[in-house]
Specification:
With about 450 residues, this protein is an alpha/beta fold. The chain folds into three domains: about 1-200, 3-Layer(aba) Sandwich (Rossmann fold); about 210-295, 3-Layer(aba) Sandwich (Rossmann fold); about 300-440, NAD(P)-binding Rossmann-like Domain (Rossmann fold). Helix content is about 45%, strand content about 15%. It has helices at about 10-20, 35-40, 50-60, 70-75, 95-110, 125-140, 160-165, 180-190, 205-235, 240-245, 265-280, 285-300, 300-310, 335-345, 360-370, 385-390, 410-415, 430-435; strands spanning about 1-5, 25-30, 65, 80, 115-120, 145-150, 170-175, 200, 320, 350-355, 380, 395, 420-425, 440. The strands form three sheets. A six-stranded parallel sheet has the order 3-2-1-4-5-6, sandwiched between helices. Strands 11-10-9-12-13-14 form a six-stranded parallel sheet. Helix 14 (about 335-345) links the parallel strand 9 and strand 10.
């Protein structure tokens, strides 16, 4: 089967490469000439463990191709996946400009049946807009050509996306015809030979499922962060509370870890978009609004703890930050708690020394272009974890990369000027840290 994937961002590139790995002939399309040129050389624009090798392997096998023109290859494919960006507008709604542009391009150029599958996260009802956009272009041309639209939301975790795609716990697909269902079944059957876990449903329900899933996970995170803050006030240990409630089979243990807030490309954007959808329909999602409020507060918790320990005066203090990406195993810094923390530290007059295994280039660019009003001369990007702690008054762990889990604490102790460690992900043992002479504080 020949398919096209429009958009070579995180979702599009991972999806296209994994389909190619299973023997599908895939052409990935993007209007960014520089990105396509790099991809044609086997250089990928994102950090995802294992992806670069898989891209190069399938290019060599002539199953994975890259182009800037959907029009040129449209007649050679049966299915087009739309994986273009849907950035949030100022009001929190999803911007469908690129989604509808793909639909119009198909309507303007298709000569035979095409199934257009929306893989981007889009508001409920988008499929109707996509269908109307294609039909409007066909009407302008005065032609009648059958086509279908479908919704196949992605549930990939950054840092573990290849495993998630190759061995999914479920695949959600919204369809309107038997033909569309048959094509999707053919595509996904190789991934699920022993247990076909494709859940077919109507398109509106598929679109809602994606938002509902991310909203539920975000809710669990904010709930536990709220509990962690209360635990600190009453003297309880949130880690013990997590174990206690996580062992309840009705609750389970996933996404119950307290920390310094969630970020990334999905949770913040999708929660905002779902709140906006509800408002458009005259309903207030009060729980999700609280989820957002808790998360915004939680991103400032590390700064508040630092202020408390340093008696409210951070001017000319040197603060080390370990971890910049919103989670380990990705270079994604979108909505990352570290960005909020660095901004507040710079505003307070601190010297900031930061290290992350892969996210330094994007972080440097972010502060250069989006926070240019800040005095970034006081921000230093370190070569490694020990360079970062040099003469630091405090060390703040923000992202739990593996290389941060068992550092040489003796070297850290000698290199730092102070002894304060604030653990934003609760990965260190409080007793051990205090025995080594550190002033240690975690979340909850």
């Amino acid at each position: 089967m020949n398919i096209a994937i429009v958009g070579t961002g995180y979702v599009g590139l991972v999806s296209g490469t994994c389909f190619a790995e299973m023997g599908v002939d895939v052409t990935c399309v993007d209007t960014d000439f520089k990105k396509i040129d790099q991809l044609c050389k086997g250089i990928i624009p994102i950090y995802e463990p294992g992806l670069e090798d898989m891209v190069q392997r399938n290019m060599k096998a002539d199953r994975l191709h890259f182009t800037t023109s959907l029009t040129d290859i449209l007649d050679t494919v049966q299915v087009v996946f739309s994986a273009v960006g849907t950035p949030p507008d100022a009001d929190g709604s999803a911007d469908l400009t690129y989604v509808l542009e793909v639909a119009r391009t198909i309507g303007q150029n298709m000569q035979q049946y095409v199934l257009l599958v929306t893989k981007s996260t889009v508001p409920v009802g988008t499929a109707t807009l996509v269908r109307n956009a294609i039909q409007a272009e066909l009407d302008k041309r005065g032609v009648t050509i059958d086509f279908d639209v479908a919704s196949n939301p992605e549930f990939l975790k950054e840092g573990d996306a290849i495993k998630d795609f190759m061995s999914p716990d479920r695949v959600v697909v919204g369809v309107e015809s038997e033909k569309a269902m048959d094509l999707i079944t053919r595509l996904y059957r190789p991934f699920l030979l022993n247990n076909f876990r494709v859940i077919f449903m109507d398109i509106l329900s598929a679109e809602m499922t994606k938002y509902a899933a991310n909203a539920m996970l975000a809710t669990r995170i904010s709930f536990m962060n709220d509990m962690a803050n209360l635990c600190e006030l009453v003297g309880a240990d949130v880690n013990m509370v997590r174990k206690g409630i996580g062992s309840d089979q009705r609750i389970g243990g996933k996404f119950l870890y307290a920390g310094c807030g969630y970020g990334g490309s999905c949770f913040p954007k999708d929660v905002k978009a779902l709140i906006h959808t509800a408002e458009q329909n005259g309903y207030e999602l009060r729980v999700l609004k609280a989820v957002e409020e808790v998360n915004a507060y939680q991103k400032q918790v590390l700064f508040k703890k630092l202020l408390k320990h340093l008696d409210g005066d951070l001017s000319n203090k040197t603060i080390c930050i370990w971890g910049l990406s919103f989670k380990p195993n990705t270079d994604d810094i979108r909505e990352a708690p570290a960005l909020v923390l660095i901004e507040k530290l710079l505003e307070a007059g601190c010297q900031v020394r930061a290290f992350d295994p892969v996210s330094i280039p994007d972080t440097r660019e972010y502060f250069k272009t989006q926070r240019s009003s800040l005095d970034t001369s006081r921000m230093y990007f370190a070569h490694d974890i020990y360079d970062a702690v040099l003469d630091a008054d405090a060390l703040l762990l923000v992202t739990e990369w593996k290389e941060f889990r068992m550092p040489s604490w003796g070297v850290v102790k000698k290199t730092m000027k102070g002894s304060l460690i604030i653990d934003g992900r609760n990965i260190y043992d409080k007793k051990e840290m205090k025995e080594m002479g550190f002033v240690y504080e975690a979340i909850g």
